[in-house]
Amino acid sequence: MYVESGGPVFAPPGVVPTPGTAGVPAFPESMAAPPAFAPPMAEETSGALAPQLGLPVAETQTPALPNPLKLPVSNHDYAWDQIVDVVSDYFPIALEQRVHIDQQVWTEGRVETPYQVGATMFEPLRNDSVGAFNRWQSTLQTIRRRAVVRVAPEPDGYVVEIRVDRELEDLPRPEEATAGAATLRNDSSLPSAARGAVSRTEWSQQWIPLGRDTPLEQKMLAEIRDRLALTPHVPMTIAPVQ
Predict the structure, then answer these.
(1) What segment(s) does the record annotate as region Disordered (predicted)?
(2) Is the terminal CB of the chain with fewer CB neighbours within 10 Å at N or C?
(3) Which domains, from first to last, does the chain contain?
């Protein structure tokens, strides 16, 4: 029991009361100033998605190849087929424009792919999610990627540029949320069940850009470089203009 200053102060046994000011109750020392308590600092662990599980913090940094990358080419058909084959190992092909070399016109080649949902931990045979970070991210989130490859011909080879963009799906609510999506309305308009989506086959209209997927770009460039290093030697000749 505590009373105003000037009156008796009753404190529990073993508690020393602190002197109070005029008009302010006197509190025990243990209540007046709580002891400074700082929880022990946890050791920094890896895991940007879930630190308690030890997941990777970020993508693994590897020695980078220049992008665009200049590659020596001695056989046009073989080189182009190898480039397209490498891209098809990761994505389906949506557009393919072969490099065209004429006496006066050299046309840039281009390969485009559609968006594809990233490989998860349960899809070990797919390799479009490079590294543990990207594979865990694609498992816990809906990530999609697409690739665009540009091939510029030069007299002694090709200049290959690979760009892989990735995006995160932005849903209005989690798919597995326990809260109901239906709510009562205040106006007289009733929602039509025919307009509601009943299938998950439709993509969300909102996607958040996550930038370029550098590890996948580097892996594809390295594979193209290694394949073209084994190109059968066929001298490139350009017929003179008549």
Answers:
(1) 172-197
(2) C
(3) 66-171+207-234 (3.30.310)
